[in-house]
Write a structure and sequence with these properties.
The complex is a heterodimer of chains A (about 240) and B (about 300).
Chain A lengths: L10 H33 L3 H32 L3 H34 L8 H27 L2 H8 L2 H21 L4 H33 L4 H10 L3
Helix pairs in contact in A: 1-2, 1-3, 1-4, 2-3, 3-7, 4-5, 4-6, 4-7, 5-7, 6-7
Chain B lengths: L19 H9 L20 E12 L2 E12 L3 E5 L6 H7 L10 E9 L2 E2 L7 H7 E4 L10 H11 L6 H14 L3 H4 L12 H14 L4 E5 L7 H14 L4 E5 L3 H7 L2 E6 L2 E7 H6 L4 H7 L5
Helix pairs in contact in B: 4-5, 4-7, 5-7, 7-8
Classes of the chains: A mainly alpha (about 240), B alpha/beta (about 300).
Chain lengths: ~240, ~300
């Protein structure tokens, strides 16, 4: 149990917060697994992995619904305040991000199945780009879930500070796919699918960063989401 | 000595700052004020004080009940005082209209300035003081008289009205302000004690208003009331604050969060933290405040 969730005079409140925390961590674990499998499906053209990802998506949707209903129950019963309120708000937002990550993994898996209907169509460079993006995004997600587990601001900051890296990888991979299309217009359909997968991987990384922001919100009560977006825009990212 | 609120982490980040990430690092390194630090956190002073309390110490015999307290009560504001039982919040409230004078073993030092005068000064007459600084108690305590007489008693003894028509005007105005007129206008001669608990409490508020106070002190005014009566009193407080300053002691965190602009947290005779209610309930500066409002108080 995370110490930040403990210490209420009514110990049942500790238990309710901790069990929600554990449920979300379980959802995080499943979502991470989905992301890893979807990456494996692309890189190894693993149809079984892609089918597994698609098959497990409803489990995550169902977990999200369970967490949502438990959060509503907790708010109505406990009226959380201050840190407890921030934790509850963060719980409620993190599950949405996790569910979106699972959606992105399912999108990737679906594209893998489409691509593998014909001949394998990934160039070496594209495989390398996807592997590189995937490593970053899935790595961010793993770190974000760890940061959420221990409410570790330092760990959360490590992902937020690395945002440019993911963005640069994404832009570079996009440029390369565009070159492909410019050279041979017949590759357009294939390139769009690859770009969609790259975008999904980029989204997974962004959702991981959102989770990291919630960790900072829980610990310090500072919502940095929009400030970071404004700064990104200002810096042209 | 009180610390300034701006010595603590800001709750927002300047979006024009190109080094947001650095800012996050800076914020991350600022923990809450430790439980051992007993100095007051937050802004104790306001720009438009109605009352200014400086270096207040209260003793019950040998017991030091309030220690070096400094706090302003602003104009037209609701100031909530929260804290565990025995922390000194009600004692402090009672200092504001010298109700502690009635306790033989109680000794108050320091100054409480209102209109540039120290209310503890021996030249101050406590009767008009208690009309200016009215009080509503935890348990509704209407006089065993009619509803009308409950209201007219104060204005009569304070000489605020002598003519019957004037008194009738005060009865109607006070009951209207207290949100009770519609419910009792046809039975003003019936006993005040025959009203429901919520109505009795509103009658006590009307009785307080009738003597034209400037500050109303409320000591857990809703603790004996059902949620509907509580909602009526809270709505009334929001209306009253346009013309009065209200200090309320409450054990309900939600009530403090709902009605007050500023909240003060007391612990073992110390004013631990005071500040904007939103800040106190979202992200207090002091660990003791957070412990208490989140129910972690051991």
């Amino acid at each position: 149990m995370n110490q930040s969730l403990e210490g209420h005079a009514d110990h049942r409140f500790d238990g309710e917060l901790s069990s929600l925390h554990l449920l979300i961590l379980k959802m995080g674990g499943l979502t991470l697994n989905q992301s890893q499998l979807s990456l494996q499906a692309i890189l190894q053209q693993d149809i079984v992995a892609a089918q597994t990802v698609i098959g497990k998506e409803p489990d995550i949707d169902s977990l999200e619904a369970t967490v949502d209903s438990r959060i509503v129950e907790l708010i109505s019963k406990r009226s959380p305040i201050a840190k407890d309120l921030r934790i509850t708000m963060a719980f409620s937002k993190i599950v949405v991000d996790l569910e979106h990550v699972a959606d992105e993994a399912a999108k990737i898996a679906t594209i893998v199945l489409i691509l593998n209907d014909g001949n394998p169509k990934l160039s070496k460079r594209q495989t390398r780009d996807i592997a590189s993006m995937g490593k970053l995004s899935v790595g961010y997600l793993e770190t974000a879930i760890q940061a959420f587990d221990t409410l570790d601001v330092k760990l959360a900051n490590s992902i937020l500070n690395a945002e440019l890296e993911l963005n640069e990888e994404f832009q570079s991979a996009l440029r390369y796919s565009m070159t492909f299309v410019l050279e041979d217009a017949r590759t357009l359909g294939n390139s769009i699918n690859i770009m969609l997968m790259l975008k999904s991987l980029e989204r997974i990384g962004t959702h991981a960063q959102n989770i990291a922001e919630y960790v900072i919100y829980v610990v310090h009560g500072i919502n940095i989401h929009h400030q970071r977006r404004a700064t990104d825009k200002k810096n042209g990212n | 000595m009180a610390k300034k609120i701006n010595e603590q982490p800001e709750t927002t980040i300047d979006i024009n700052d190109n080094h947001v990430k650095d800012t996050i690092e800076i914020h991350s390194s600022k923990p809450k004020v430790s439980r051992e630090d007993r100095s007051t956190m937050g802004e104790i002073r306001v720009s438009n004080p109605r009352m200014r309390c400086s270096d207040i110490n209260v003793y019950y015999g040998d017991k030091h009940a309030i220690k070096n307290l400094n706090l302003d009560v602003g104009n037209s504001e609701i100031l909530a005082m929260i804290g565990p039982s025995g922390c000194g919040k009600s004692t402090f409230l009672r200092c504001l209209n010298r109700m502690n004078d009635t306790i033989d073993i109680c000794r108050v030092t320091g100054s409480i300035e209102m209109d540039d005068k120290d209310i503890n000064d021996s030249s101050i007459d406590v009767v008009p003081l208690r009309a200016t600084v009215g009080m509503v108690f935890q348990k509704p305590n209407p006089f065993p008289k009619s509803i009308r007489e409950n209201i007219t008693f104060g204005p009569k003894i304070h000489g605020l009205a002598s003519h019957k028509d004037d008194l009738e005007g005060i009865v109607e105005t006070s009951l209207k302000k207290a949100g009770l007129w519609g419910e009792v206008k046809d039975r003003l001669d019936q006993p005040g004690t025959g009203l429901s608990g919520g109505q009795q409490q509103r009658l006590c508020i009307a009785r307080t208003i009738a003597v034209e106070p400037e500050i109303i002190l409320m000591d857990e005014p809703c603790s004996a009331l059902d949620p509907i009566s509580t909602a009526a009193i809270e709505e009334l407080m929001m209306d009253l604050k346009e013309n009065f300053s209200i200090c309320i002691v409450t054990h309900s965190m939600q009530q403090a969060a709902r009605v007050s602009e500023r909240t003060a947290y007391f612990h073992l005779g110390d004013l631990i933290e005071v500040g904007d209610t939103k800040q106190i309930f979202n992200n207090p500066l002091h660990q003791l405040t957070e412990d208490y409002i989140t129910g972690r108080f051991g």
